[in-house]
Amino acid sequence: MLENLIPRASVGLLPVAVFLAALVFYDSYKLVRLRAVLLTIAAGAVAAVASYFANIWLLDSSGIEFVTFSRFVSPIVEEILKSLIVVYLIRSSRIGFPVDAAIFGFAAGSGFAVVENVYYLGVLSEAHIAVWVVRGFGTAIMHGGAVAIFGMLTHTICEERQSTKPWMFLPGLAAAIVIHSVFNQFLFAPVLSTVGILVLLPPIIMFAFDQSERSLRKWMEVDFNADTELLELINSGQFSDSKVGQYLGAVRDRFRGEVIADMFCYLRLHVELSMRASGMLMLRESGFDIAPDPEIKGMLEELRFLERSIGKTGQMAMKPFLRLSSRDLWQLYMLEE
Q1: Which alpha helices (DSSP H) does the chain contain, by range?
Q2: Is residue 58 a contact partner of residue 69, using CB atoms and an 8 Å limit?
Q3: CB-based burial of residue 171 (10 Å sphere; 0-12 exposed, 13-18 middle, 19+ buried)?
Q4: Residue 70 per-residue DSSP state
Q5: Among 83, 40, 23, 35, which residue's Cα sits nearest to residue 213?
Q6: Whole-prediction pTM value?
Q7: Which end of the chain is more exposed for a tag (fewer CB within 10 A), N or C?
Q8: CA dihedral 196, 65, 117, 193 (to 10 degrees)
Q9: Model pLDDT, residue 336
Q10: For residues 70 and 51, is the Cβ–Cβ distance under 8 A?
Q11: d(CA 280, CA 92)
Q12: What is the dihedral of CA 136, 138, 142, 143, to 10 degrees?
């Protein structure tokens, strides 16, 4: 029994794990920590358990034929539950670039696929090894790839629109559901589904990786140069004559003097933290593994204190000149890792 189970488990579980490891290794900047990947895999496993019970309930209550349900209903249920993990990560500024979204998405799909295949190992333990080739190289990669594509599309849309409103997630979710549903259309020709997944998904994901890294490199250069210029201006003693200084002078009458002072301190601290984050990225690209700076924790605590002191109105007043996009918020999160 065990002799038959080991090869089936290997073929069913290892391909998705190897592909995920390749994605993490291929990431030049190593922006996604191993702990975060493992937590996302665990979340994907929870999504698999939730989808199992949701699918059983819907199948029993709807009266839909099993094959029809598998082709059109279960893909919707499963992709929604898997995608919610990436939605949380995007909305909490845990993801900075599409490459990160691809890794987290594939990790969520991997956790889902592992639990699903472990379940089938129990109920189909005597199935032919070909079944596990299909499940390992086809179904499991499909689960990971669909969420990876959802993550990349969604992050790109949210970054372009600078919004994480619910409808920003619909195009990526639709793409993931279509991929899953098309895969399930070939229930009676599983080899075709497996070949299709292996031929199409990996090149798409690797292409997105390359594009994302180019985007990161370009953004990092622009961001670092802008922060350097602003910090030099603050330290030059001529800040009040600059456009930013004039703007703060123009809103002086709307805020108390101590709030204006805190806004200035917030600006300087935010720029310094942004430059440190950009520096860390440059070092990581060069192959250096940088240990966390002990000063960062205190600086971030001071930044949060200043945010509370300035208040929502003060932060809105600073928006015209202080970059507070989702990518900049991700930079601050990265420093805490």
Answers
A1: 2-26, 34-62, 66-68, 74-91, 98-123, 129-134, 140-161, 170-185, 190-235, 243-250, 257-285, 294-318, 326-336
A2: yes
A3: middle
A4: I
A5: 23
A6: 0.77
A7: N
A8: -10
A9: 64
A10: no
A11: 21
A12: -30
Q: How far apart are CA 316 and CA 22, in angstroms?
A: 42
Per-residue pLDDT tens over the stretch 213-260: 777 766 665 565 666 666 666 666 666 666 666 666 666 667 777 888
Q: Which two tokens stand for residue 22?
A: 């390749």
Residue showing tokens 């942004």: 274
Better pLDDT: 272 or 324: 272
Per-residue pLDDT at 295: 80
Q: Which pair of tokens denotes residue 267?
A: 């600006």
148, 109 in Cβ contact below 8 A? yes
- pLDDT (tens digit per residue) in 14-64: 999 999 998 888 876 677 888 999 999 999 999 999 999 999 999 999 989
* Identity of the amino acid at 261: A
The residue with tokens 């490199």 is: 217
List the one residue out of 164, 200, 147, 142 whose CA is nearest residue 90: 164
